[in-house]
Write a structure and sequence with these properties.
Elements: H1 2-15, H2 23-35, H3 40-49, H4 67-78, H5 82-90, H6 95-106, H7 108-123, H8 127-132, H9 141-156, H10 163-199
Length: 206
């Protein structure tokens, strides 16, 4: 999640400035990916050719930047006062220092909102792991949860298990589901105040 938010902010901040040469061209290229996607097979071939198969980076790099989150963050950066950056330049700060010391601290609402969306998406993701990971020891929790649910569904359709064993299997399944939701449930209260502000981005004008 941290990697995604950091890389997205590093891309959105410079492209939020009107003075950047070629800004319109790069924005059109990024927007193009919202309409057209390479597809599953080309993406898998790229990951395979780069040697990322069966590595943790195969779960990180292909989803490092999401175009939708990029445009949300860029819109937020465009609404920040230019006077703050001008004052930082007068004090001798460079663009990276302005981003890290001024822009990002003021952008906690959008950072928390996008971070929560990314965290929920990554936490619930299991399809990428099925494609890119071969080692069972590297499987995320959602893969094991999926296997438990499928195993219980298959067992429910057979008559080889008695009632008591089926109750145990159902209990394990629902306990696993509850366990898988706890990290997100515990994370939300800490960023709720930022999330409410971030969800209102663009809703008020003037």
């Amino acid at each position: 999640m941290c990697y995604c938010v950091l890389v997205t902010s590093l891309l959105a901040y410079p492209l939020s400035k009107q003075r950047i040469i070629g800004r319109r061209f790069f924005l059109m290229l990024i927007a193009f990916t919202l309409i057209f996607n390479g597809g599953l097979i080309p993406t898998f071939l790229v990951v395979q050719q780069t040697g990322l198969i069966n590595t943790t980076w195969a779960m990180v790099i292909p989803t490092l930047v999401t175009t939708f989150y990029f445009f949300i963050m860029k819109t937020f950066f465009e609404g920040l006062p230019e006077e703050l950056e001008d004052a930082a330049k007068i004090d001798g700060s460079n663009y990276l220092g302005i981003l890290l010391r001024i822009v990002l601290p003021l952008s906690m609402p959008v950072m928390a909102t996008i971070g929560l969306f990314i965290a929920v998406g990554q936490w619930n993701s299991f399809f990428d792991a099925l494609i890119y990971l071969n080692d069972r020891d590297m499987f995320p929790l959602q893969i094991h949860l999926r296997n438990i649910v499928i195993a219980n569904s298959a067992a429910a359709q057979t008559e080889v298990r008695d009632g008591e064993e089926m109750i145990i299997m159902e209990t394990v399944k629902y306990a696993t589901i509850m366990f898988a939701t706890l990290p997100i449930l515990f994370t939300y209260p800490f960023i709720q105040k930022y999330f409410v502000q971030g969800a209102m981005i663009g809703s008020v004008k003037g």
